[in-house]
C-alpha cells in the first residue's frame, strides 16, 4: 500500500516578508485594452487573515501512464492532488506547457483520426487541472485538432503572447486570469496568472508576440486590477525565464517548463547581487534550502523559478502564505517524486487505461506489439529535442545505425532530426516496441538512393546549417573532418563519385527545411529500391544490438 511521505522532499523558503502597500499600486504605462477575466472562488471579505494557497506544478507531460523504469504517473498525481485539496481547498493544479504533443499514444489512429492529444485532455480533465499555458509542442498539431482540444478542455487556458493569425487570442484562451480565493477566516486573496511561450514552433496558424514584453504588460495589468500575488506560467528556456525574473515585471513566482529536468532558482532583481553566492540554484535532484534576504518594506528580494521533471516524474508543490494586513508573502516550494508513494486515483487510472488500450489496438493493426520487450539497454538514450537537433546522441546513433543496417550495401544513412519526437530520455533497462513508437511516432518507409558525391556533400552541409531545427541531419557513415572535408568511412568524399545512401521517405518529398532539392525525381536523386520500414529497422537492430558497451560511435 502506498504511504504518504512528508510534503518536503526539497525546499526553498522565502520569508519574511516580501511586500509593501506600494507594491500593490498600479504601475505606470499604457496597457493593452481588454477585459480582465476574474474568477471568484468565494465572496471577498475585508478581514485580517494569513491565507495559505497551494500550487501544484506540472510541465512537459507527454505520457498518460507510467513509463517503465522512469517513474511518473498521472493517476498518482491525481491521488496526491485529492489529498492536498482535502487538506486545503485553496489548491490549484497548473500546467506549464507541452502536453498535447509529442506522444506515441497521440499518433494512434482511433475511429479514423489521430488522437492528437485527445487522450491527454481527457485525463487532465479527470485530474481536475485548473489552468494551463501553451508549450511549443502544442503547435505540432494541425489547426483543426488544436482547436478541438481547446474546446474539449474543462480547464482554463492562459496565454499572454500566443495569438491567431488575426492577432487575437484563440477561443477559450485569455491573456491573464485573476482568481479570488477565500481563506478559512473569510479574508480574500487575489491571485493573478499569466502565461508565455517561446516561439520555437512557428505553425502557420500561430503568431507570437515578445514573451518578456507581454509578461510585463499583463503582470502590470493584473496589479492594476488588485492582484495580491502574480504567478507566471512559462514555457521557454531558462535564460528567458531569468530575463523575465530580472525585469521590471511585478511577478512573484515563475512556474516554467521546457528543460525537462527539475530545478529551482532564485533570481534577484538587483543586478548587484545577480550571480553572487546568495543566488540559489538547485537542480538534478540535489537537496537545497535557502532563505532569501528581504530588504526593508516587504519588497521581494528575488523571483523563484521552478521547473519539474518531464512526464510527471516529479511535481512541485508551492505553498504561498499571504498576510492580508501586512501584505507580506512567504513561498515554500517542495519537489515531490511521483514514484509509487502516492495513492492512485481509480477514476484517472481507468481513463488513462481506456485511451492506452485504444492506442495499443491501433498499433497492433500496424503490425507492432507495444508491450513486447525487444532489448535491454545498458545506457541512457537521449532523445531530448535540443541535443537531437544540434548533435549526435546515444539514441540518434542507434537509429541511424539501424537505418544503415537496413541496406548493408549503403555507404551512409541520413535522418532528419525532426523525425525523432521523444523529447525525453529513455533510462537504462528493458526497451519495448512502445519506446520505439514514442521515439519515432510517425514511422514511415526507408529508401536506398543513389546520390552523386557533390549532391551528397550539399545535403550534408545543409544539414549542418539546419542546426537547431528539425531539418538538422543525423548521419551514420559520414563525418566532417578537422580539415573541413567530409569523409565516408574514413575516406574523403569524392564529388564525382556516386554513393548509395539510406534516407527516410519523408526527405524525398522535398518538404524538409532547405532540402527541397532532395525530392524524388529531382536531378541527381535516383531511388534504387525501398529499404523497409523505419521503426521495424530499429526494432530489428535493437534485438541484435542492445545498446551498451557496443553503442555505435558518432559518425
Describe the structure.
This protein is an alpha/beta fold. The protein folds into two domains: 14-349, 4-Layer Sandwich (Purple Acid Phosphatase, chain A, domain 2), CATH 3.60.21; 367-544, Alpha-Beta Complex (5'-nucleotidase,  domain 2), CATH 3.90.780.10. An eight-stranded mixed sheet has the order 1-20-19-3-4-7-8-10, covered by helices on one side. Helix 1 (74-87) packs antiparallel against helix 6 and helix 8 (394-405) crosses helix 11. Mean pLDDT is 87; it is low at 1-46 and 272-297.
Please outline what is shown here:
The chain has 555 residues and is an alpha/beta fold.
Labels describing this entry:
555 residues, alpha/beta, Purple Acid Phosphatase, chain A, domain 2, 5'-nucleotidase,  domain 2, eight-stranded mixed β-sheet, 11 helices, 22% helix, elongated, disordered N terminus
